[in-house]
Design brief:
Layout (H helix, E strand, L loop, with lengths): L17 E3 L18 H14 L3 E4 L12 H14 L4 E4 L21 H5 L10 E5 L3 E2 L8 H4 L3 H4 L1 H8 L2 E2 L3 H13 L3 E6 L2 H12 L8 E5 L10 H10 L5 E5 L5 H10 L3 E4 L15 H15 L6 H8 L8 H7 L25
Parallel strand pairs: 1-2, 1-10, 2-3, 3-4, 4-7, 7-8, 8-9, 9-10
Antiparallel strand pairs: 5-6
Helix pairs in contact: 1-2, 10-11
Length: 359
């Protein structure tokens, strides 16, 4: 992304989109006071997040036994109710579905579901606006950056086997998965929301765009949770922002008490933010913080800087919900990227307006 001298002025920045993740699939009820269990509680969590200022909802579903649901019927039911309860929210299904172990048994593994099951998210009815998608298989050790105090008293902190399951987890997202998944999402008019952590992953997405495999808006999360994903070094965040195309939409995601400071940096730099009990349970050290309180905190920071908060309808425009492009050339142009090299063309590529060979 290119920053002009006036790019830090809040009146020149997009209005802030706050993405809320209030369903905490790695936690169990009781780990936080706002973990929803019943379907009514799932819906109320969405309403509360929207009323606090969030306009994108990151969705997981929980069974009454406390574990994450793997039943598509549960997702369909929640989607239908959310369309009625929060019609202006961008509804984003978490593409992991549920990576939590199905039981608390010793040796249980925290595993992402099979490719075939995850592909079913493209068939949900009502369909979501977005499904998150990971690119390239990697370790996903979500506890690596946790302090002991972060999980004290939680199911993860009290159960060594559960802790080990999350420590040893891998995210499976190789080409066999993402090529088919992108095809199915696009065929059903569902936007892919890319969950990325490294420049290598970003470069893979660029190659998919340049080859015409993906032809749509580029909506990204920078996932700074460690353990195979990005860490918390500000220089890495800045470099990732620098490398993101000008026409992309970027949200910054972190974990535990780093969520607020990373979010503050994101707000100042004109990016967007994600908060919620899926990522963080804390405010000040030792003080619990609900998802709604986290939304209110970052909304206050943004308003203090003079940057407005997007409405639901404005968030849909910022995310370009419902847009798709004809081919690689149009996608590159819409994202502000230089065109592909034509046969025999030498030198660095320019955007068409500055390409003398087209005159």
């Amino acid at each position: 992304m290119h920053f002009h001298d006036d790019s830090l002025y809040p009146e020149n920045q997009e209005k802030l989109v706050i993405q809320a993740a209030p369903y905490g699939p790695e936690w169990l009820p009781g780990d936080a006071e706002d973990i929803p269990l019943t379907m009514d509680e799932h819906v109320q969590a969405a309403v509360d997040c929207y009323n606090a200022g969030a306009t994108v909802l990151h969705i997981h579903v929980r069974e009454l036994d406390g574990h994450g649901s793997k039943r598509m019927s549960m997702f369909n039911e929640l989607m239908a109710r959310l369309r009625q309860a929060v019609p202006d929210m961008v509804l984003q299904i978490g593409g992991s579905i549920s990576f939590a172990p199905e039981s608390d048994d010793e040796g249980a593994e925290a595993k992402w579901l099979s490719y075939d099951t995850r592909h079913l998210l493209a068939e949900l009815d009502p369909k979501p606006d977005q499904v998150t998608i990971a690119i390239n298989t990697s370790q996903m050790n979500i506890v690596e950056l946790f302090d002991d105090e972060d999980i004290e008293g939680t199911s993860v902190g009290k159960n060594p086997a559960l802790y080990k399951a999350y420590r040893d987890m891998y995210l499976e997202a190789g080409p066999d998965f993402y090529l088919e998944h992108l095809k199915r999402l696009q065929a059903n008019g569902i936007q892919a929301h890319f969950q990325l952590a490294t420049l290598a992953q970003l470069e893979t997405v660029e190659r998919l765009i340049r080859k015409g495999v993906y032809t749509g808006p580029l909506t990204l999360n920078y996932v700074a949770i460690g353990g195979g994903f990005a860490g918390r070094h500000p220089a890495d965040l800045i470099e990732f922002i620098r490398r993101v195309p000008d026409g992309a939409t970027l949200t910054i995601e972190a974990s535990m008490r780093a969520v607020a400071p990373m979010g503050a940096v994101a707000i100042a730099l004109g990016q967007h933010v994600r908060v919620g009990n899926e990522d963080n349970l804390w405010g000040r050290k030792g003080e619990r913080m609900t998802t709604v309180q986290q939304i209110e905190q970052l909304a206050k920071i943004s308003e203090g800087l003079g940057r407005d908060i997007a409405t639901g309808r404005e968030a849909r425009e910022i995310y370009h919900i419902g847009e798709y492009y004809a081919d690689a050339d149009e996608t590159l142009a819409r994202l502000g990227m230089v065109p592909n090299r034509r046969p025999g063309q030498r030198g660095f590529m320019l955007r068409p307006e500055g390409d003398r060979s087209l005159v």
